[in-house]
Amino acid sequence: MRSVKTALALGVAALAVTGSIMTPAAAAATPSENANGKAMTWTLLADGPSGTVQVGGGPLSNPYQGDTATTTALPVLCLRIDGRPAPAGITPGFYAGWARGEVAATGPIRGTRLTSRAVADGVCANNFGPGWRMAEFHDGRYGPGLENSGGWSYWAYGDVPAGTRFWTAINDQPANPWS
């Protein structure tokens, strides 16, 4: 009669062979971040006063695990922070901050081509010039002196296409194309 430990070990080995579970060695060899091959995207949420737009994730976005396959070609959402004040009609808050600058979108690029934050920032700088970088989930600011960082969406000057998703970075989650 086999011991319980032996039976369990054989059962685990059988499941590992069939692919139903991962052994500790296989789990250690598998990247833990963004293993599903998806990254977070944002979109145009609204047009605002004085040439502003609100960009954000909307209901389709997943800032924790990504929402779009990185094999998809989408524009990169870019931001240039230049310290512009929010125009009349924009009241920054945690969920809809003020980005203190301008947003723009590149042409479509497969997420798999964005292999690091530096590469993504370079795509923006190459398209729009010095000072441009990939927009990030927490770029919206609010509160006295815009000293607090929010998330989920923000307002900025700019013009981005409606009905399009954009690759957008997030600093504290594994939902980037390079994660």
From TrEMBL:
Domain of life of the native organism: Bacteria
Record's signal peptide: 1-28
Keywords, ordered alphabetically: Signal
Name of the featured protein: Flagellar hook-length control protein
Gene source species: Streptomyces netropsis (Streptoverticillium netropsis)
